[in-house]
C-alpha cells in the first residue's frame, strides 16, 4: 500500500551524487567530513555563545538560530546521502521522501528569513545606534526569530500538503540525491498547476522580497559607513556586517539557482553541486566565516576549547 489512496509509488530511488564507482570512496570520506565539520562547528558556535554572557546580544542571538538551522538542515540531507554511498544504491520510502521534503523546505525558507532579520539587526545597529536597544529589545528579537520559524513552517506545510495530493504512478527514480519540490514535480502524473503557482508565490516572497529587503538594508548600511570620517570607525562598522554579507551572497546564489531559475538550462549535475552548497558546504563554512571575522566569537571559542588559537 502507498502512503495515500492515490499514490502507486511506495518508494523513490535516489540517483545519488555521482554514478561513477571510482568516486564512491572519495565522496564517502568527503561528505562524512563535511557532515562532521558542519555539526561540530555549529555546535561549538551555539555552545560558545550560550556560555558567554557577553555575547547575549541580538546579533549573537540570531547567529545561534542560524547555527541551529545549519545543524538540522545538514542532518536532514547528509545522513541519507552517506547511506546511499555505503550501500552503493539509495532508496527512500514515500513517507520518508515527504518528510525530508518538509524539513528541508522548512529550514531553507527559515534561513532566508533569518538572513533578512540579521540584516535588519545590522541596519539598526549601524544606522540607528541611539535607538538600537529599543528597536532590538529581547521581546522584539524573540518575535522576529519565532516568526522566522513559524512562517517557514506554514509555507512548507502548504508545499508538502500539495505534494501529498499528487499521483506518482512511475517512474520513481529521482535524478538527485535528495527530495526537493522541483525534482518531485517532474515525476508526478497529476496536474501540477497549483503546485507551480505556490512555488512562484514562495519564490517571490522568500527569494525576491527578502533579497530586496536585505539589499536595501545594506544600501543604508554602506551609506552610513561612508559618512563615518575616521578610517578606523569605517573598518569597525564594516567588520560587524561583513561576515553576514558573505553568507548572504553564498546562500542566495545557491538557492536562486535552484528554485528561482530551475529551467535555466543548467545540467542536473550542476544542480546537485549547487544543492550541496546550501545543504552542506554553507553550514560548514558559516561557523568559520563568523569566527574568523569576529574577535568576540574567537575569544568565546577559546574559552570552550582552550587549544584554539
What portion of the residues fall into strands of 2 or more residues? under 5%
The strands making up the biggest β-sheet line up spatially as 2-1-3
Please give the number of β-strands: 3
Query: CATH topology, anyone?
Result: Rhopdopsin 7-helix transmembrane proteins
Low-confidence stretches: 1-5
What average pLDDT do the residues reach? 84
Q: Any idea what the CATH architecture is? A: Up-down Bundle
Total number of helical segments?
11
Structural class given helices, strands, pairing?
mainly alpha
The largest sheet, given as strand count, sense and whether it forms a barrel, is: 3 strands, mixed
Rg, alpha carbons: 21 Å
The N- and C-terminal alpha carbons lie at a distance of 57 Å
Per CATH, the class reads: Mainly Alpha
InterPro entries: GPCR_Rhodpsn, GPCR_Rhodpsn_7TM, Olfact_rcpt, Olfactory_GPCR
GO molecular function: G protein-coupled receptor activity; olfactory receptor activity
Protein name: Olfactory receptor 13A1-like
Pfam families: 7tm_4
Features of the shown structure:
Rhopdopsin 7-helix transmembrane proteins, 11 helices, 309 residues, mainly alpha, 3 strands
Description of the molecule:
This protein is mainly α and 309 residues long. It has a single domain (11-304), classed as Rhopdopsin 7-helix transmembrane proteins, CATH 1.20.1070. Helix content is 73%, strand content 3%. The chain has helices at residues 24-51, 58-87, 94-127, 132-135, 138-164, 181-185, 193-226, 231-239, 242-260, 268-292, 295-304; strands at residues 11-14, 90-93, 173-174. Helix 1 (24-51) runs parallel beside helix 10, helix 2 packs antiparallel against helix 3 and helix 3 (94-127) runs antiparallel to helix 5. The N and C termini lie far apart (57 Å). Mean pLDDT is 84; it is low at 1-5.
Amino acid at each position: 500500500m502507498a502512503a495515500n489512496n492515490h499514490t502507486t509509488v511506495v518508494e523513490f530511488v535516489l540517483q545519488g551524487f555521482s554514478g561513477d564507482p571510482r568516486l564512491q570512496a572519495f565522496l564517502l570520506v568527503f561528505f562524512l567530513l563535511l557532515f562532521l565539520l558542519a555539526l561540530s562547528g555549529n555546535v561549538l558556535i551555539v555552545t560558545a555563545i550560550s556560555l558567554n554572557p557577553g555575547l547575549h546580544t541580538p546579533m549573537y542571538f540570531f547567529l545561534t538560530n542560524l547555527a541551529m538551522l545549519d545543524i538540522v538542515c545538514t542532518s536532514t540531507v547528509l545522513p541519507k546521502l552517506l547511506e546511499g554511498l555505503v550501500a552503493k544504491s539509495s532508496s527512500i520510502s514515500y513517507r520518508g521522501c515527504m518528510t525530508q521534503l518538509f524539513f528541508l523546505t522548512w529550514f531553507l525558507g527559515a534561513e532566508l528569513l533569518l538572513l533578512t532579520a540579521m540584516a535588519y539587526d545590522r541596519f539598526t545597529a549601524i544606522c540607528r545606534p541611539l535607538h538600537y536597544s529599543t528597536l532590538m529589545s529581547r521581546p522584539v528579537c524573540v518575535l522576529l526569530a519565532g516568526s522566522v520559524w513559524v512562517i517557514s513552517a506554514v509555507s512548507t506545510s502548504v508545499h508538502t500538503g500539495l505534494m501529498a495530493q499528487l499521483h506518482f504512478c512511475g517512474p520513481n527514480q529521482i535524478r538527485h540525491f535528495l527530495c526537493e519540490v522541483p525534482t518531485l514535480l517532474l515525476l508526478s502524473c497529476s496536474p501540477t498547476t497549483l503546485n507551480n503557482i505556490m512555488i512562484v508565490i514562495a519564490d517571490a516572497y522568500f527569494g525576491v522580497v527578502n533579497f530586496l529587503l536585505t539589499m536595501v538594508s545594506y544600501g543604508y548600511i554602506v551609506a552610513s559607513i561612508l559618512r563615518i570620517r575616521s578610517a578606523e570607525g569605517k573598518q569597525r562598522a564594516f567588520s560587524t556586517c561583513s561576515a553576514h554579507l558573505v553568507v548572504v551572497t553564498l546562500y542566495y546564489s545557491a538557492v536562486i539557482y535552484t528554485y528561482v531559475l530551475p529551467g535555466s538550462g543548467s545540467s542536473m549535475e550542476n544542480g546537485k553541486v549547487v544543492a550541496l552548497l546550501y545543504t552542506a558546504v554553507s553550514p560548514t563554512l558559516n561557523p568559520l566565516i563568523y569566527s574568523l571575522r569576529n574577535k568576540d566569537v574567537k575569544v568565546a571559542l577559546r574559552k570552550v576549547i582552550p587549544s584554539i588559537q
